[in-house]
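ARCHIVE RECORD
Type: protein–small molecule complex
Small molecule: adenosine-5'-triphosphate
Source of inputs: curated submission
Record status: active
Notes field left blank by submitter.
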Amino acid sequence: MKHTVVRTKDIVLIALFAALMAALALFPPITIPALGVPITAQSMGVMLSGAILGAKRGGLSILLFLLLVAIGLPLLSGGRGGLGVFFGPTAGFMFGWVLGAVLIGYLHERAWATIEPFKSFLYCFLGGIVVVYAIGIPWASVNTGVSLVKVAVGSLAFIPGDMLKAGLTALAVVAIRKAFPAMHQPAA
Amino acid sequence: MSPTPSSESHAPARTRPGRSPLHRMPAGIKLLVLAAAGTGLAFTTSLWVLGGALALTGAGYAIARQPVRRLFGVIRPMIWLLVPIFLVQGFMESWILAVAIVTRIITLVALAQLVTLTTPSDTMIAVITRALTPFRVFGVHPGKVALAISLALRFLPVIGGLAQEVRDAQRARGLGHNPLALALPLLIRTLRMAGDVTDAIEARSGGDDDEDAAPARTPVPVTPRAGSAAASSPAPAPRSS
Amino acid sequence: MTTIEVTDVVKRFESFEALKGVSVTLAEKRIGVVGSNGSGKSTFARLLNGLVLPTRGSVVVDGLDTAKAGKAIRRRVGFVFQNPDNQIVFPVVEEDVAFGLKGLKLPRDERESLVDTVLSRYGLEHLRQQPAHTLSGGQKQLLAIAGALITNPACVVFDEPTTLLDLRNARMIARTIREMEQTVIVVTHDLALLNEFDRVLVFDEGRILVDDAPSAALARYVERMQ
Ligand SMILES: Nc1ncnc2c1ncn2[C@@H]1O[C@H](COP(=O)(O)OP(=O)(O)OP(=O)(O)O)[C@@H](O)[C@H]1O
Ligand SMILES: [Mg+2]
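STRUCTURE (tokenized, with ligand):
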């Protein structure tokens, strides 16, 4: 990859999707009574950024969002922000967001021309759930000293909500592809 | 819960009142101390060490004149995690270990938050862009990172407002609870906006270039090509370097 | 004085022809552009500073071809867009105004004094430190104009600068445009804005239909719209 030059358009998309991540925190969380776990819109932003912007821009937009949180802006759902959140037990999930967005982006870029909802759902599942949990769970285990298995069991309650988000993202992505078919093509 | 106040608070925090020694300490040093504490405390379960670190952090809040209440916003959402962690550790391992682990988490979160509370965002951005300079060899361009941060700060309230507009519009149509009806228009308007913003940046700054790759360029070289002799002279030599 | 020569320009987006052969030389100080939605006005406006490059034909600004010297031309031809929200790219007023100076490597005090001058010319000096999103619509459009003028372009292209404003702010912006020293090219649906202009182009389906003095051109345009 010799062309590491980031075009103005790329910088703008990275910045706007970081801002979009923040805007998603403004949507009130939905709580499914049977689970009692609130589902926030924000982690859907990870899937959307990856799927729509691709590996590089998507990953960078999440990284930029985390940077804004780190400098103290209260942009995480619930109005949290500051360096403190990166030292808590759930920080690993946020770092997982970056890699998750990269994988989602990579998979969507390759399949953009023929993307359909099921494929997109599968990619969002792999990046937005498998990767994110694969980083978040061990992190939490190390951070808290609780065994991997127990943390994993404790995390199960969030899976249904995340599956729902992957499904919604897949539907949105297919609609976006119709409106912006050239999204993943390099500039002329 | 109206999101308006929080979209207001998305505005860049320009300054934070405070003249304590911690406010005046260079941000780079504060970040180094934080990194050292994060690494050091990770390897200890000694209640003495952890308790000492927590006491020092508390002293930091006192020196910086930051009410500890400022910390609750970050700790409170963690309670539902800290309580089960404490119980699991206590019953399965030992109550001493349970206290140690919860103390460590709270100490690090509190210390990190103290750095945030005593460092204005602008300063933090400056430190970050400076810290990125060595990464230029990997294609990281600090100027572009700074532009991305500025743009994101600028568009936080704009996209927040957009989200609000979309929500109101869909609520009026009875689609207020359909997540797709909220996400799609927001995405499409964001992508459209990206095109316009890019055009504006190019119109105002000239456009893409590899700035620092080339030596200082003369401003405004816009004299029309009068004669071929004058036009054939190369760009003026850079003053130095 | 700026001279822009547009020669036989065709602009195609994928299969759609937005401009179908446009030739015109612009040298007057006040030029208006009108036409129905989708007639190609914005595409035409963006040609003039190289934001859009012709598929065929050429656009030459004071001897420089937009396809080759886009950057130099954009310093010579400023652009003000319809929606100032998309044109203001920095969070704080004074930072945003200074954005156009970034690449110029000016000494700090010179940059400061340029910022001062342009902010006070547009009555924004008291808002210097304000976050841009707290400005009113009219103030935002003034900020957009100030940001475009800080590099002192010889010519400014406006694409519907008053469309999103209320009557009072629209009049204020119209007056600001009329009082500018620069060559001005204005795309608008607000025909009153063009009263004292030197020349008006009427676009229709990607072509220049009428090219005349304002009264004659606007009469033809209104007649055609009925
Ligand atoms: N980037 C683009 N890609 C595809 N089609 C485009 C693009 N830009 C413009 N068009 C099409 O070209 C045509 C002319 O567009 P243009 O924006 O120049 O019209 P306009 O006269 O400015 O209209 P309005 O009064 O609505 O602003 C339209 O049909 C538009 O859909
Ligand atoms: Mg237009």
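CURATOR ANNOTATION: The mean pLDDT of chain A is 89.
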